[in-house]
Structures are given as structure tokens and as C-alpha cells.
Specification:
about 525 residues, mainly alpha
């Protein structure tokens, strides 16, 4: 069977831009030996394939023997990477510094000590200017090696100077490593579990943040120290749903780049992530005006060369801008209009299949399902929710729980009462197993169980009673997570007033917008 996702060489070939393919052909022409003709033949064959199929590959290219294929693929993989490394290395600070370090080592091996040391001086200046402590430390190690083995300079305190420099860099790297580890731990916790479900979850992530606070006491003055520190506070606040603190550190994250613009080109992926989180913070706080300002700036940034010349940056900006555009429709209550985004979104998801992780696809499915639910197309909502429910994975257990709850409510809206009794038990057991049953969820399940036996006239008072009991829970941080996934309040109001749910949300949006405009006058 064709397998697009597991053959690494096929993925690499398919990821190449037209200019990169042309550069590879030129590279092979300059460096090819007699044995490389089959490598180019293999490259052309893989380039033409839509899906990787080894049997088809061998059948259409009789010059390539099955026993040769493994070695040819390994050779082609290395040659492609070598050709890419030579393509605009100066555009990437990592590649540029690595290249200069290679030159310094070559000069040293040739016995040209002074030239090697001059190259190292340039590397150190460039590394310091761009906060590249790892390359600075490598340069210092090579410089210490040269100074310890050869008499090159007359400075009496050279050894002490190099020793102090190395100690300072090592201390900085230790701090950066510690903070980045904690940031990753917090983010991984969120990917596994979502928002904190109870006091135990909150205590667990609090203990991680305490480690960050201890490290912070060691002075976080450099770019990377502050970046990872802000990320730690950002993830902690998001997990615990302290939305104001989440916004504050998202803004610090983005401002860090705006205050040192050259770092946007160096750490573009971190900048993109920061902009996404800032948009999410404005969305969660319902700060519509700032949300619009940031998304316009983000869309403009997505068209710059920094993004367009890097496939990873293109894919990441696509993911986050599409997420923000859907969220904009959630804010405005324009669910039906938001569905216009779905065809292009699905096409791009297929186009970027090689580059998207399962978590991103899972989130998109849930957002598309929510658009359909809000527009009143409960059948299509169920179709997308089934994609989540039937996709066996251990990511975002919270999202899987609320996908099942929204799936249950969609069937309720369609009047599938023959299914509801079974679904109620199934979803309840699943959410209990995943420890996702809070006061909000318990009350919703209790209402749905009772509603089977109520007449339409009896239903309205029960809807009103449920709404009255849920409103106070919106301000409870541990219970508010349910409202982030399901706007259960607006749904209940729509049932009580016999109005489409998107009309309820739209009316709230317009009233809030008028209040802001009145205050601004």
C-alpha cells in the first residue's frame, strides 16, 4: 500500500520548493560522479509521485534494482541536505555561525593559528550580537584549545579572561536550558490534559512554575532567558485559566521581539507562536478591537519574505491565522458566514498534510464542528466530531471529552432520543474516566437525563433552572473551562427564547461593541 507518511526521503523531496529542486540539480551536476546518475533518476521519480509506493517506483524505473534502493535512498537524502545547506546559508544565523566555526577549525588544522583566532573573534562578536550562546561557547572552547597548545598572544591575563568568559556563558546556558525545559514541560502538560481540571492539576502546574521562579532569581537579562521565562508564565496562566496574566505574558513575549526586531528573523517560529497566543488571549478576554489589530498585523507579517521563504513559517502562520479567523466568527456570532472558510481550510490541510501534527488537525476539526453547530447544521457538526471521537490518540483528553459532549447535544437537537440514552452513559463514563466531570458537566448530564420525560411545555422552566444554576459557575476558574469549549449559556438562552444560537451570540457581540464605542466617545 502507498504510504506517504512514513518514508522520510519522499517527505523531504515533496517538501522542496521549485528553486530548491533546481539548486539540487545544479549541485549534482557540479559534484556528480558516475554513480550519481541513478541518484538523480531516483530524485526525479520521487518528485513525480503523489504517494510513495515502492513497487510502483521499481516498476517504472527498471534501471534501479531493489537491492540498490536502500543505499541509493540514503545517498540521495544526504545529497539533498548538502545542497540545501549551501542555499543562502547567510540567511540563517545558525548555519552562518556553524560555517564560520568550520572555517576556524580548518584554519587551525592547517597550522594557521592567528587566522583561526581572528575568525573566532568575528564569530564571538556575531554570536553575542544575536544572543547565540551555544556558538559563543564553542568558539571559546576552540580558542582555549589554541591558546593552551600554542604561544600566540602576549596578554598575560588571557587565560583568566577566557576562563571568565566561558564561566559566564556556561551560567547563561544553564539558565536558558532550565527555563526552556520548564516551558516545554508546561506546554506538554497542556497538550496531554488541556486546562486544569481540579485543585490537584493546579497544584501540579504550580509546582513547575515555582521552579521557574527559583531560576528567575538568577537574573534573566538576556533575550532567551526572558523568552522562556515569559513562556513559562504564559503556559501556566493559560492552563489555570488566569486569563489576565495569560494576556500580560503573551504581550511581554511579543514585545520582546518588537523591542529587538532582528530576532524576528532569527527566532521566527517563536515570534509566530507568540502572536498566536496573543490573539488567543484577546479572544478569551473578548477584546475584539485589540484582536482585530493583532490579526491584521499578523496577516501582514505572513506576507513578508521572512515567512514566505521558509516552508515551516508558511505552514505555521497558515495554522494560526486560520484559527484566528474562525475565532473571529465565534466572537461576532457569524457562524454561517464562518463556514465559507471550511472548503479552503480543508484543501490546505490536505496540502500541508506532511507538516501538520495530529494536535493541530484535532483542534481544527473541533472548531469546524463548532461552526456547524452554531449555524444550526447539527448533522455536519456530528460528522466532524466523529472524526475526533474515532481518532484514537492520547492528545488533548479535554478536547476529546468536550467533543463527545457537543456530539451528545447535537444528537439532542436532532431529536435522536433512541440514541441518547446509550450516548449519555457512554459519554458520562468517558468523562469520568478522564476526570473531566465538574459541576457544569454534572448539571448538564442531569438535565439531559430528565429531559427525555418532559413535555415541550415542561422543558422551558427546566432550561431556565439550568441556566440560573450555571451562571454563577462562569466566574469559578476551575469550572469556567467548560465554557471555553462550549458556550452552554448561549445555547440555553437560545432554547429558552426559541432563537438560533448564533443570533444570541451575535446580539451579545453587538451590544458589547456598542458599550465599547459609547465608553470611547
Amino acid at each position: 500500500m502507498p504510504n506517504r507518511s512514513t518514508d522520510m526521503l519522499f517527505q523531504l523531496v515533496q517538501s522542496l520548493e521549485r528553486s530548491e529542486k533546481r539548486n539540487f540539480k545544479l549541485y549534482m551536476t557540479r559534484n556528480s560522479g558516475s554513480g550519481d546518475l541513478k541518484v538523480v533518476q531516483l530524485f526525479d521519480a520521487l518528485d513525480k509521485m503523489k504517494l510513495y509506493d515502492e513497487e510502483q517506483l521499481l516498476a517504472k524505473n527498471p534501471g534501479i534494482q531493489k537491492q540498490q534502493l536502500s543505499n541509493l535512498k540514503a545517498h540521495l537524502y544526504r545529497e539533498i541536505l548538502s545542497s540545501l545547506r549551501l542555499l543562502n546559508p547567510e540567511a540563517n544565523i545558525d548555519l552562518a555561525l556553524h560555517e564560520q566555526l568550520d572555517y576556524a577549525r580548518i584554519l587551525y588544522n592547517k597550522g594557521l593559528y592567528y587566522q583561526s583566532l581572528k575568525t573566532l573573534d568575528r564569530i564571538k562578536e556575531q554570536a553575542k550580537a544575536n544572543y547565540q550562546a551555544t556558538y559563543l561557547l564553542q568558539a571559546l572552547f576552540l580558542e582555549k584549545k589554541i591558546e593552551s597548545l600554542h604561544i600566540t598572544r602576549s596578554m598575560q591575563d588571557r587565560a583568566e579572561t577566557l576562563s571568565r568568559e566561558a564561566e559566564n556563558v556556561t551560567a547563561r546556558l544553564s539558565l536558558v536550558s532550565g527555563l526552556s525545559d520548564l516551558s516545554l514541560e508546561l506546554y506538554s502538560w497542556y497538550i496531554r490534559n488541556g486546562h486544569s481540571r481540579n485543585a490537584e492539576d493546579t497544584a501540579e502546574v504550580d509546582s513547575l512554575l515555582l521552579k521557574a521562579a527559583v531560576l528567575q532569581a538568577r537574573s534573566c537579562e538576556g533575550f532567551y532567558e526572558r523568552l522562556y521565562l515569559y513562556q513559562c508564565y504564559c503556559w501556566h496562566a493559560f492552563i489555570t485559566q488566569d486569563l489576565l496574566v495569560y494576556y500580560r505574558y503573551c504581550q511581554k513575549w511579543v514585545d520582546l521581539f518588537h523591542n529587538d526586531p532582528k530576532m524576528i528573523a532569527i527566532e521566527t517560529a517563536h515570534y509566530i507562536k507568540g502572536m498566536h497566543n496573543l490573539l488567543s488571549a484577546h479572544f478569551d478576554l473578548r477584546n475584539y478591537q485589540k484582536f482585530n489589530e493583532v490579526i491584521k498585523a499578523f496577516e501582514a507579517f505572513a506576507e513578508t519574505d521572512v515567512v514566505q521563504q521558509n516552508r515551516n513559517n508558511v505552514v505555521q502562520t497558515f495554522v494560526y491565522i486560520q484559527t484566528a479567523r474562525i475565532n473571529k466568527h465565534f466572537l461576532e456570532g457569524t457562524f454561517t458566514k464562518g463556514l465559507e472558510l471550511v472548503p479552503e481550510l480543508e484543501e490546505r490541510l490536505q496540502q500541508y498534510e506532511l507538516y501538520l501534527d495530529r494536535h493541530r488537525i484535532l483542534v481544527f476539526y473541533y472548531k469546524i464542528a463548532s461552526l456547524y453547530f452554531g449555524s444550526g447544521d447539527f448533522g455536519s457538526s456530528i460528522d466532524y466530531l466523529n472524526k475526533i471521537i474515532n481518532w484514537k490518540m492520547d492528545l488533548r483528553t479535554d478536547l476529546q471529552c468536550y467533543a463527545r459532549l457537543l456530539h451528545l447535544i447535537a444528537h439532542y437537537e436532532l431529536g435522536h432520543f433512541d440514541l441518547l440514552e446509550y450516548l449519555l452513559k457512554s459519554v458520562y463514563r468517558f468523562m469520568a474516566k478522564m476526570q473531566n466531570l465538574g459541576a457544569v458537566e454534572e448539571q448538564v448530564f442531569r438535565f439531559l437525563r430528565q429531559s427525555f420525560h418532559l413535555t415541550p411545555r415542561q422543558l422551558k422552566p427546566q432550561f431556565e433552572s439550568l441556566l440560573a444554576s450555571l451562571r454563577p459557575l462562569e466566574k469559578n476558574r476551575l469550572e469556567s473551562r467548560a465554557f471555553m469549549y462550549l458556550d452552554i449559556i448561549s445555547w440555553l438562552e437560545s432554547k429558552i427564547n426559541h432563537t438560533p444560537v448564533q443570533d444570541v451570540i451575535r446580539q451579545k457581540f453587538l451590544e458589547g461593541k456598542r458599550r465599547v464605542e459609547t465608553l470611547g466617545e
